[in-house]
Write a structure and sequence with these properties.
17 helices, binds beta-D-glucopyranose, eight-stranded parallel barrel, 497 residues, alpha/beta, TIM Barrel, three-stranded mixed β-sheet
Length: 497
């Protein structure tokens, strides 16, 4: 029955979403913008900050970053945070999503040395937000592991790191208890594990496809769960805050109505999203992930599955560690079933066994996978609701990546309009409990391996100018009007909800 309901959702056609939704967002719906410490702060080694795996990666392997750039200065938000807050204020946003750099607070990664200047920086930032009536939504880990934990422990391949993360989380809950009520433990564990410890495309660059990435998944989930439990037990009664983890997913649209292609789409959603969501929202790994990795591991000659077991105790620890669903989403891709790959070296791709493709008519953003497909967001929100129940959902990132830094960013305006309209469809047509939309991003930033050559800001940052001026793009005006009128079309065309 569940399967039939799910599949009928996928039957929503593009045509259903063709027109823009003119209704106003519900009165309590919140808007925000997001950023992350390693991408905007700069000051990579100033005032006591320790080295992170991304500092190390960019300095050691410049060829791995498209423009050979580093995050050393980035937007210099460490010195210019007041300017950033002023932009958030000017746009009328309710929420500013930011991240704390673990190594700015604990330069070694351990609690042996607390960097008071780092603490002061975030205290000042929170003070500034408070003075401007902006709610901070704070991520504890946005990919910037302290390098010493990679060097001495192997990073997320070592379960000890989950405990160290929990120590760091406790310290942050304690230090910023009066300043923050909305916490996110970890941003996009999929990127942390698949790219960091699977393909090796991201820092720390470990290539262990189909092995290390699964070990990482388990450790990251344990880290999240431990931090959540600490908050629940030691802090929640004090400030009644909320904690969750940010998951991310492309929407995977089946390439045909055939059962095999429908199943392929479900399979990749479970491998990419369910592998995190299922243990947290339901308990244990998704069955399809468990059985496929076990089956291929066995044929490959492994004595046990490459997907680590979750013990009954671990399942209990992880299950239920969420106060809402936080999701990042940028794009949609097509997916078909494919023939089982020959048994050979372990591979996450072979475990998934799908063929991914893009419709040629789709408008592209900065990369091949970045398709502009607004209805994909609506379908993803519905997928979450069907899988995990009628939970509160917050979009913690969505935005348009372009290779063109133009100020006349009509493509970005079109993207926001389409995707926000899709949010309205999800709210009003599908009864999805979506309560906030946080865009990525307010200013251009250091885009990891994309360096300073992929642009997502509603304000352009001139990275050649030592003062890093922020220059308004057209999309900033558009988004400001959306927030003001609570509607995605011109004010006189908005209809009341
Ligand atoms: C990450 C951000 C990144 C954004 C745009 C997300 O996956 O969380 O750090 O900048 O994508 O590329």
């Amino acid at each position: 029955m569940r399967i039939i309901v799910l599949f009928s959702l996928f039957a929503l056609s593009v045509a259903d979403d063709a027109g823009l939704n003119t209704r106003r967002f519900p009165p309590n719906f919140k808007f925000g913008a997001a950023n992350a410490a390693p991408q905007i702060e700069g000051a990579w080694n100033l005032e006591g900050k320790g080295e992170t795996i991304w500092d190390h990666f960019a300095h050691t392997y410049p060829e791995r970053i498209v423009d050979r750039s580093t995050p050393d200065v980035a937007c210099d938000s460490y010195h210019k945070y007041k300017e950033d807050v002023a932009l958030v204020k000017k746009m009328g946003l309710d929420i500013y999503r930011l991240s704390i750099a673990w190594s700015r607070i604990l330069p070694t990664g351990y609690t042996d040395q607390v960097n008071s200047l780092g603490v002061k920086y975030y205290k000042n930032l929170f003070k500034e937000l408070k003075a401007n009536h902006i709610e901070p939504l704070v991520t504890l880990y946005h990919w910037d592991l302290p390098q010493p934990l990679q060097d001495s422990l192997g990073g997320w391949l070592n379960e000890t790191v989950a405990d160290l993360f929990a120590d760091y989380a406790r310290l942050c809950f304690e230090l910023f208890n009066d300043d923050v009520t909305s916490w996110i433990t970890i941003n996009e564990p999929k990127q942390v594990c698949l790219a960091g410890y699977g393909s090796g495309a991201f820092a720390p660059g470990i290539q262990s496809d189909g092995v290390g990435d699964y070990v990482c998944v388990k450790n990251v989930l344990l880290a999240h769960a431990k931090a959540y439990r600490i908050y629940d037990k030691e802090f929640r009664s004090r400030n009644k805050g909320k904690v969750s983890i940010v998951l991310d997913s492309t929407f995977w649209e089946p390439g045909s109505d055939s059962e095999a292609d429908q199943e392929a789409a479900q399979r990749i959603l479970q491998f990419d999203l369910g592998i995190y969501g299922h243990p947290i929202f339901i308990g244990d790994w998704p069955e399809v992930v468990k059985s496929r990795v076990a089956m291929r591991s066995r044929l490959e000659g492994y004595s046990q599955s490459r997907l680590p077991v979750l013990s009954a105790k671990e399942i209990e620890l992880i299950k239920g560690t969420h106060d809402y669903i936080a999701i990042n989403h940028y794009s949609t891709q097509m997916v078909n079933a494919t023939v089982e790959a020959p048994i050979g070296r372990p591979s996450g791709g072979a475990d998934r066994s799908v063929l991914v493709w893009n419709r040629p008519e789709w408008q592209k953003g900065s990369s091949d996978w970045f398709n502009v497909v607004p209805w994909g967001l609506r379908k993803l929100l519905n997928w979450l609701k069907n899988q995990y129940g009628d939970e509160e959902i917050i979009i913690t990132e969505n935005g348009y990546a372009d290779t063109d830094a133009t100020l006349e960013d009509d493509r970005r305006v079109g993207y926001y309009q389409g995707y926000l309209s899709s949010c309205l469809d999800a709210i009003y047509k599908d009864n999805v409990n979506l309560t906030a939309y946080v865009t990525w991003s307010i200013i251009d930033d250091w885009e990891w391996t994309g360096g300073y050559s992929s642009f997502l800001g509603m304000y352009r940052v001139d990275f050649n100018d030592p003062d890093r001026p922020r220059i308004k793009r057209k999309s900033a005006d558009y988004f400001t009007n959306v927030v003001k009128n609570r509607c995605v079309v011109d004010k006189d065309q908005c209809t009341d909800s």
